[in-house]
Known about the structure:
The chain is of the alpha/beta class. The chain has helices at residues 28-43, 65-73, 81-94, 111-117, 145-153, 155-164, 170-176, 188-200, 204-217, 222-237, 240-250, and strands at residues 4-9, 12-17, 49-54, 58-60, 100-104, 107-109, 121-125, 129-131, 168-169, 181-183. The relative contact order is 0.12.
Amino acid sequence: MTDLLLERAGGVATLTLNRPESMNSLSLALKEHLLDAVAELRADTTVRAVVLTGSGRGFCVGQDLREHVAALDAGGAPLDTVTRHYNPIVTTLATLPVPVIAAVNGMAAGAGAGLAFACDFRLASSSAGFLIAFANVGLSLDSGVSWTLPRLVGFARATSLSLLAEPISAESALQMGLVSAVVEPDRLLPAAHELAERLAAGPTRAYAAIKESIAFAANATLADALAKEADLQRDMGATADHRNATAAFVAKQKPVFEGR
Length: 260
């Protein structure tokens, strides 16, 4: 897979979209490789954190429009890719049982922005930007943006960003809560890996439960959210990480988490 690089080191997996000549636009091959890779990471119990980034000047500018236009001209149905690729990629990425960090090194547009929004953390280079580009090509939202963007910035701002389809600078993204931090370009990957390593050393079973709890509560009643919390706490209370960390706290020692 030359268009997608997958590296593992010390419990951290790094996925790099690798089509720099097209700003990492999502060709059919890249979408299929990305879908396979995130499914592989879900099944790999040695992976405790994931970094997603792009090569070259862009993070990902979304759908490969050259390929898309060729499919339209040939009488095909290229938007079937939403159900075949984007939906399962975003679902798997957003529900990975480990923390996922988007290292946004350049423009994240359209479905590329959707991939970043599906991650748990977004670190942006000072030269990065976002563009909710769908309206510019006469399309509605996909890649989960209708769900993730309002939860990140609120309903009114999400509507404005989507309808106006204007570029968002890294600093503006920070101010509105789209990203967790903005760093200089040469610090982006080191900062992302430092965060990933910190998380990988943490209670990854608890992280998975926290992610599940927050996602469930987004569309639940208070009563249902409380019940879900109780179920997850019951499960976490039986983990070795909880027992060991509690004992370490009482003994005034630093806990060691093993993800079990």
